[in-house]
Amino acid sequence: MDIKKRLKPAINTIKTVPLIVSTLSFFILLKNVLLESGVLNSFLLLPAWFSTFLFTLAGSIFAGNPVNSYVLSGYFYSQGIPLIALTSFIIAWITVGLAQMPVEQEYFGWKFVIVRNLISFVLSILAASLIVILYLIL
Fold first, then answer.
1. What pTM did the predictor assign?
2. What is the DSSP string of 66-107?
């Protein structure tokens, strides 16, 4: 087998490293600057629907391993952020992919990618609502 063919997956993996490093760097900045300065407490004053929208938007923008969203959500939950916002954050992190849109566009086209991301965004809020309602009932 050709060496170029064997190296292609490794090179593609290495290309994702800057995205992962920048995401982790943002989390460190988020924790050290924003969260410890009390900015997170201002989210408690917002209506639940608006904080849900903001956290869904944040989950859509962030990229990386989904385990990071669980760790962040655990911290946010301990700070009093509504459960529906955190559930939507986790679902959007996994289903909405703004970071991978350029790659998806090459294979599926912009129309499909935009429609898929918009549907995933809305469904993440709806699914989070249903999950939280069921959690509170049961």
1. 0.74
2. HHHHHHHHHHHHHTT--HHHHHHHHHHHHH--STTHHHHHHH
